[in-house]
Amino acid sequence: MDCETQKDAELEAPSIIDRYYTRWYRTDLKGQLCEDHCILQHSNRLCVVTLAETHPVLQNGRTIKSIDYQISNGCSRLNNKVSGKSKRGGQFLTDFAPLCRITFIFYCFCNLKAAFSCIRGRLLEVNENILERPNLLLEKPSTEGYIAVILPKFEESKSVTENLLSRKEFEIVVSKRDQPQAS
């Protein structure tokens, strides 16, 4: 295969995320405009929680100062320990359970945003790599910069996406935001 053909094949090849995961979105979380999250759902039910590309933290000019999995005085997502085939011991999360707090700088001002679970299920893992390298959240939000991995209950695995938007529906919501409002 010549170099030209190889480059064309590489450009057309889908990413691992696009190949093995279905993207689902939750928009305007808790009534906050653009507080969008992306849930990558694998065929084995595992869901990877990430920030959607429209989330305020991922916009140009932002610098992430810190990420904290300490949700309250008595609850740290870092203390989550799972064991065994049925993943016993993992913290159970509701749709709007906070996963972490992200402190970012924009125009010399510190801002605080929370990332939420968006789905019900058992917390399997939080991404400790983003604690040491917070810019992974900006550079690779869908891969190395993910926030957490959640396993929905087996009986809820089909219904977990009922409150989420498909990629196409998400793009429609985003395009409507970009349109000027009629007075």
From TrEMBL:
Keywords: Cell projection, Nucleus. SUPFAM superfamilies: Single hybrid motif (SSF51230). InterPro entries: Abitram, Single_hybrid_motif. GO terms for molecular function: actin filament binding; actin monomer binding. It is found in: Cell projection, Dendrite; Cell projection, Growth cone; Cell projection, Lamellipodium; Nucleus speckle. Gene3D superfamilies: 2.40.50.100. One of its GO terms (biological process) is regulation of filopodium assembly. GO terms for cellular component: dendrite; filopodium tip; growth cone; lamellipodium; nuclear speck. Belongs to the ABITRAM family. This is Protein Abitram. It comes from Oryzias melastigma. The lineage of its organism: Eukaryota, Metazoa, Chordata, Craniata, Vertebrata.
